[in-house]
TrEMBL record:
Belongs to the sarcoglycan beta/delta/gamma/zeta family. The keyword Chloroplast does not apply. This is Delta-sarcoglycan. One of its GO terms (biological process) is heart contraction. The keyword Transit peptide does not apply.
Length: 289
């Protein structure tokens, strides 16, 4: 430390002694402590600077951003996997051209659409057990805009040209179904079945059942009724067989032949009676009881 000497002269009082010298500065243990703290401060500054440079290097800080995060003219760009611990608010999220966009979560992924009052209007929840969608209406469309599927409180619409059900047990409708056409796949059977209740087919202009390359069967446990209120029932075929009609009682008189006539009872029941020279239906009226 520089030392300064101050000489005080007393002009009013003469003195026989020489001038007195006073030393100004820091000496001894105070000086050593000051040097120690200055050296320690310099070491801390160097360590802090080294740590800052190391963090910048590890986090890959650049002018454009840090790490996998880049700041571009269009917004933020993330490269690689990214993890958000808090809610993410963004106007648009898109992947890089040619790459897919993945959302991964340990529990579920929830997408909410809010209004100005932060009230949820539409919500999509994808979880480990189910995919749930909440909204006024749900629609699935093609790239060209054609409606494939829609659902709301009033109805469910399937806009595809063909609805295929691949389940082994078929399709179960607990109530009515309205469709213009019910058709099976080529070379497959079509079965309309009601195991415990009745099966009703109604149409204001008629019901048409076609089996162009096979047989058509109608099977029931008790009664099969064909009823026409204002028209007629026509059986148009090259051969009509009624193999299980009851037979009337046979009388041994006359010669036995394999010709029968169809008889109709008052209650509408049909039965076969062995033909004779005249009608034998009156003889076998016991079948109508």
């Amino acid at each position: 430390m520089p030392q300064e000497q101050y000489t005080h002269h007393r002009s009013t009082m003469p003195s026989s002694e020489g001038p007195q010298v006073y030393k100004v500065g820091i000496y001894g243990w105070r000086k050593r402590c000051l040097y120690f703290f200055v050296l320690l401060l310099m070491i801390l500054i160097l360590v802090n600077l080294a740590m800052t440079i190391w963090i910048l290097k590890v986090m890959n800080f650049t002018i454009d951003g840090m790490g996998n995060l880049r700041i571009t003219d269009k917004g933020l760009k993330l490269e690689g996997d990214s993890e958000f611990l808090q809610p993410l608010y963004a106007k648009e999220i898109q992947s890089r051209p040619g790459n897919a966009l993945y959302f991964k979560s340990a529990r579920n992924v929830t997408v909410n659409i809010l209004n100005d009052q932060t009230k949820v209007l539409t919500q999509l929840i994808t979880g480990p057990k189910a995919v749930e969608a909440y909204g006024k209406k749900f629609e699935v469309k093609t790239v060209s805009g054609k409606l494939l599927f829609s659902a709301d409180n009033n109805e469910v619409v399937v806009g595809a040209e063909r609805l295929r059900v691949l389940g082994a047990e078929g399709t179960v409708f607990p109530k009515s179904i309205e469709t213009p056409n019910v058709r099976a796949d080529p070379f497959k059977e079509l079965r309309l079945e009601s195991p415990t209740r009745s099966l009703v087919m109604e149409a204001p202009k008629g019901v048409e059942i076609n089996a162009e390359a096979g047989n058509m069967e109608a099977t029931c446990r008790t009664e099969l009724r064909l009823e026409s209120k204002d028209g007629e029932i026509k059986l148009d075929a090259a051969k009509i067989q009624l193999p299980r009609l009851p037979h009337g009682s046979y009388t041994p008189t006359g010669t036995r032949q394999k010709v029968f006539e169809i008889c109709v009872c008052a209650n509408g029941r049909l039965f076969l009676s062995q033909a004779g020279a005249g009608s034998t239906c009156q003889i076998n009226t016991s079948v109508c009881l």
